[in-house]
Amino acid sequence: MPWHARLQLDYRHESGRSVARFRHEGPLRILQSLYPEGGAICHNVLVHPPGGLVGGDTLSIDIHGAAGSHGLLTTPGATRFYRSEGEVALQDTRIRLDADARLEWLPLEALCYSGCKAENRLRIEAAPGAQLIGWDVTALGLPNANLPFERGSLTQHIEMPGVWLERGRIDASDRRLLASPIGLAGHRCIASLFVVSGTPLGKARRETLLDIARQIADADSLRDSAGATSPHAEIVVLRVLAPVVEPAMKLLRHTWQAWRAELWKLPASSPRIWAM
Predict the structure, then answer these.
(1) 86-118, pLDDT tens digit by residue?
(2) Which of 40, 88, 157, 237 has the most CB atoms around it within 10 Å of its CB?
(3) How confident is the model at residue 218 (pLDDT cuts 50, 70, 90)?
(4) Which UniProt keywords apply (predicted)?
(5) CA triplet 149, 150, 152: central angle to 5 degrees?
(6) How far apart are CA 52 and CA 2, in angstroms?
């Protein structure tokens, strides 16, 4: 039978400290809050014990950042979309940030196994003064395990209503898209890192963020398949294609650390679970 899981996560700023409270239904929850950077920033790990989704499964994640709070959220491993014989497997994430809230949305990659029918949605709403640094990383098949993406499909939806919308569908049968030099050019990892701001970023600030991303990308092995743009005054995006996840994730982590230093004057502080 399909598994349906929901998580409501609320970050609040209380007495100089960001705190996380959550409610859940089904196998989806967060682990203990950690404060490696002090009380102002709350680090959490989002856990889905089954480890993957099959046809008909739904994960609904609702994250709210109250005014002045700062949360950092990651996962202990990849989200896996397994083979489906019928229905779509859905991960639906909604992020709402009140005035002057900050969130770092840093889940590990989504793995699309051959034969999957997957949909991955992300909706971000940011009030004036709120900011988010987040990423989305998707891998098609498992090339290193000789399990290519030969059947199935993925629908990807990322949106800031009224400001930014990216929606696309990848079908394993579309060999032209997967192999063409104006498509994925044979790459099997698609990754984006983005800044979302509830208040328009000034031109100088956007240019600085773009310069940082471009300088890092130009020094990286993926320089020929990476590019940074600002499609709106409230959005800055670094996009990259890679043959596998690891080099893409390395580039995104490096840029994320540089962006948080520029935007928030915060040093690099990777979640502890990434080192395990």
Answers:
(1) 899 999 999 999 999 999 999 999 999 999 999
(2) 237
(3) very high
(4) Chaperone, Cytoplasm, Nickel insertion
(5) 85
(6) 12
Q: What are phi and psi of 147, to 5 degrees?
A: -125, 75
Q: Which of 158, 166, 163, 129 is nearest to 263 (CA)?
A: 129
Reduced DSSP (H G I as helix, E B as strand, rest coil) percent helix, strand, coil of the chain, to 5: 20, 45, 35
Q: Is the pLDDT of residue 192 over 90?
A: yes
pLDDT (tens digit, 9 = 90+) per residue, 130-179? 999 999 999 999 988 899 999 999 999 999 999 999 999 999 999 999 99
Q: Give the Cα separation of 36 and 229 in Å (integer).
A: 32
Q: Pairing relation of β-strands 70-74 and 42-47?
A: parallel
Q: In what order do the strands lie in the sheet with 164-171?
A: 17-25, 4-14, 58-65, 89-97, 116-126, 152-160, 164-171
Question: Across the chain, what does the average pLDDT equal?
Answer: 95
Q: Coil, strand or helix: which one is 246?
A: helix
pTM over the 0.85 mark: yes
249/49 Cα distance (integer angstroms): 23
DSSP three-state, residue 220: coil
Tokens (6 digits) for 57: 């499964």
Q: Which of 62, 105, 128, 268 is nearest to 193 (CA)?
A: 105
* Residue 265 CB-density burial (10 A; 0-12 exposed, 13-18 middle, 19+ buried): exposed
pLDDT score at 86: 84
